[in-house]
Amino acid sequence: MERQRSGVIYGLAAFGAWGLLPLYFKAVGSVPPLEVLAHRVVWSLVLLLILTAARGRLREFRRLLRDARTQLTLVCTTGLIAVNWGLFIWAIANARLLEASLGYFINPLFSVLLGFVFLRERLRPLQTAAVILATISIVWLTTSYGRPPWISLVLAVSFGFYGLLRKRVDATGVQGLTAETLMLSPVAVAWMIWRQDRGELHFLHAGGGIDMLLVSAGVVTALPLVWFAESARRLRLATIGFMQYLAPTGQFLLAVLAFGEPFTRTHAVGFGLIWIALALYTYDTLHGMRRAAPASTGRTRT
Fold this sequence. Notes:
Helix content: over 70%
Mean pLDDT: 89
Largest sheet: none
Oligomer: single chain
Distance between the termini: 18 Å
Low-confidence stretches: none
Order of helices and strands: HHHHHHHHHHHHH
């Protein structure tokens, strides 16, 4: 029970922070998305190495990197999180936060599918209905705009598989994320050196305020992902999916109310179908928890 409670706390902290994260990326909007991504990688690694050393776990971290199967899994999660980070930054810079938020609304339902396919978690009727409604929403948006909501789909798929694979890594959230940023950092540093040689790097050339914000990318990126990783290790994938729409709710409100992105009737239908799907999924999850509680109590008493 304590493990599950801490998982819920970590999850709420992670998804709440992600809901407000677009405010940070708007603040560094004058910096190209790829440079922001590079700073996310490098400064996250610096912070995570400090945390690892402070906890006295550098030796454990080295052992983690020696395991071939773990290395392969981390290579996959590294690629997934790089795509997810980069696309999210690009979406905000190009006034596409609304579409990005849709991706994270879809993600809980995609996580249910992943749990069914890879973890043999049973799909109940309401969960099936929710997934069907989400599919109808995607088809509606695709036919209405003449293109699929590709930002939404890439974000949902990349983050869903990231959560699934991270459950298979026998490491703490800090250790896993440190390994991922360590793998990405050589590319990030090389890219920044190349940009500097071309005279196109903003860091140290755009003012102290921007420099401070770019350095703080390590904090705003690493901490929510550490919290998510710790939550994923403690909770079922379906429970993670249940909590994930806290983040897109914040992102959706920021996109419409703060950033002024248009919300059309077509959006209303597409998002409405997703919200109905999430309502069905939420009801099913809560109903399942109520049914499980008496059974658990009965087993304890015997």
